[in-house]
Amino acid sequence: MSGSPPAVPEAHSVETYHPPKAMLENHPSKHHLSSFEEYQKLYKQSITEPKVFWAERARELLTWSKDFQTVHSGSLANGDNAWFVEGELNASYNCVDRHAHKDPNRVAIIYEADEPGEGRKVTYGELLREVSKLAHVLTNLGVRKGDTVAIYLPMIPEAIVALLACSRIGAIHSVVFAGFSSDSLRDRVVDAQSKVVITTDEGKRGGKLIGTKKIVDEALQQCPDVRNVLVYKRTGADINMTPGRDLWWHEEVEKYPAYYTPVPVASEDPLFLLYTSGSTGKPKGVAHSTAGYLLGAAMTGKYVFDIHDGDRYFCGGDVGWITGHTYVVYAPLMLGVTTVVFEGTPAYPNFSRYWDIIEEHKVTQFYVAPTALRLLKRAGDHHVRNEMKYLRVLGSVGEPIAPEVWQWYYDVVGKGRAQVCDTYWQTETGSNVITPLAGVTPTKPGSASLPFFGIEPALVDPVTGEEIHGNDVEGVLAFKQAWPSMARTVWGAHKRYMETYLQVYKGYYFTGDGAARDHEGFYWIRGRVDDVVNVSGHRLSTAEIEAALIEHHSITEAAVVGVADELTGQAVNAFVAVKEGTEVNEALRKEFILQVRRSIGPFAAPKAIYVVPDLPKTRSGKIMRRILRKIVAGEEDQLGDITTLSDPSVVAKIIEVVHEQR
Ligand code: WT7
């Protein structure tokens, strides 16, 4: 990659942070690994003897109703990976029963309702009863092992109950984020062939009501195969109930006993589907196995987040996305600790909401996306008035975290007493794949650091398809070995699975992300390869330019896209949101450009800077650069579906800004 900017930040500009001393001293017990060297040793074993490594962990962390003999079979090249082949187990037994038997009064769920003070706690004993009753209800509705159930629920404890009730009877849950439109819901229900949908009368988020049942009703007009809708009463709104089809959750669960014998499933039986959008085509129903997925959740919960008995774990992700599946539900419950289910938003009723929750419940691990951190950083440090002295781990997920935001997280939220863990993974990987281990791995702001056990990263030259060896290099991130929690297929479209992930570079799993490996082997995620801009032969990461822009004190958020340019191939266009009260003029725009020139180099300087009120983001906070790319390309009439944006009205405002500046 000659002619590229330095692949990796210069060593002198990057500070290495060791696990904070105060965290080590305040630890209630001790870290699961004693040293970084121990990680290195175990990691090596996980790569050279994966079967030995994973068999031991699978027997330690999962409870089996039937043991396995074959640890792993199949290959990446053939796309037929199977783990713990002959084994049988039940996910809800692993997440609930075994903890309830030991300590029924232990709190499984702390529910923080949208309105502060309106939540409640659910113990493992109660969870077992609720899951069992719902399992009876589903069975009575004709749901059988291998059937899918669509779940369209807000962030309430019943969402967890619903997931676990499905798994208790061997059914496959298919959660659709309760912010998706009725059309998106319909497509997912139809694709997954779900015959039962679980929802609420309404949802409540950030003080606003969401008509979930109404959306379900609309979707179901075009889902002829749906037999029943189970409705949990959340707000008591006056809603339509279709006789014979719609049933009240509270009336149904009343009818059944508080115990349901868990149905054992095979290791490879699917636990769930989760739809995810690719760069092309309709959303894919990514299918995860039962045993391998659960092991990934438990292993990363234990080693990445350093979960210990008695911890109170708070992941701010929604159960409608993979982060919610793995780190609100499965990781904490597999390990028998308390998980916080937060229904609201970080800005309601004010910007201290997260910090108040952490303080009140003595949260030990907090996990959130940088987009929320940027919002809260922008709101001002005075909102972070809590001590939060139990915090040991501060996780970041979903997008690169700019060093500046990382530093704020570390200093202002963690007060230097908690470790920031920038975790890289995907819906398809099931659990964290490149990530520090809290208490063990040294970190560098902006780097997801090192591979998790069993993950063997490779950087591939996108042109030749050859692996790039050595350090201080950059390429497309791929994995060379199968790992237990990798997605097994795309529901009903195995060919698409093969083409998207396993046939791009034969023998590798293709992530779709660009990455660099620095002189110490640390990984720096550059963003999706379709977000890479090439200016005069310089490969630029949009994430890198964004990080540079955000270093400017006036900028709160930035999104960079490549635009076709006659002279340079592609040119960089930047969209930025600025602090309230900032006067926007030509001089300021020049400053922004200078910021990038200074931080990365003149070749990276944006050709245009658009100051916009907000960026187009999905409800999970991902910036939709695709929309920005269309706008700057003058293809506003081809924006596609923008209903999944958290605020679709920003699009018109952005178009206006771009037009004005031309
Ligand atoms: C894509 C996966 C699984 C978490 C929620 C998103 C980006 C994820 C990081 C990170 C830089 C990240 C990648 C990846 N991504 N984590 N720590 N640093 N980028 O799941 O919707 O499946 O998206 O999110 O581009 O491919 P997802």
Low-confidence stretches: 1-6
N-end to C-end Cα span? 35 Å
The small-molecule ligands in this entry are: 5'-O-[(S)-butoxy(hydroxy)phosphoryl]adenosine
Structural shape: globular
How many individual helices? 19
User: Which whole number gives the mean pLDDT?
Assistant: 92
> What gyration radius follows from the Cα positions, in whole Å?
24 Å
Description of the molecule:
The strands form eight sheets. The protein has an eight-stranded mixed sheet with strand order 12-11-8-6-7-14-15-24, with helices on both faces. With 662 residues, it is α/β, with parallel strands linked by helices. Bound molecules: 5'-O-[(S)-butoxy(hydroxy)phosphoryl]adenosine. Keywords: ATP-binding, Ligase, Nucleotide-binding. It comes from Sordaria brevicollis. GO terms for molecular function: acetate-CoA ligase activity; AMP binding; ATP binding.
How would the blueprint of this fold be written?
Elements: H1 21-26, H2 36-48, H3 50-61, E1 72-73, E2 82-83, E3 88-89, H4 91-102, E4 107-112, E5 120-123, H5 124-140, E6 148-152, H6 157-168, E7 172-175, H7 182-192, E8 196-200, E9 203-205, E10 208-210, H8 212-220, E11 228-232, E12 246-248, H9 249-253, E13 265-266, E14 270-276, E15 284-289, H10 291-303, E16 312-315, H11 322-334, E17 338-342, H12 353-360, E18 365-368, H13 370-379, E19 393-397, H14 403-413, E20 419-423, E21 457-460, E22 467-468, E23 473-479, E24 489-490, H15 494-502, E25 509-517, E26 523-528, E27 532-535, E28 538-541, H16 542-550, E29 555-565, E30 569-578, H17 586-599, E31 608-611, H18 625-632, H19 650-661
Parallel strand pairs: 4-17, 6-7, 6-8, 7-14, 8-11, 11-12, 16-17, 16-18, 18-19, 19-20, 30-31
Antiparallel strand pairs: 1-2, 3-13, 4-5, 9-10, 14-15, 15-24, 21-22, 21-23, 23-25, 25-26, 27-28, 29-30
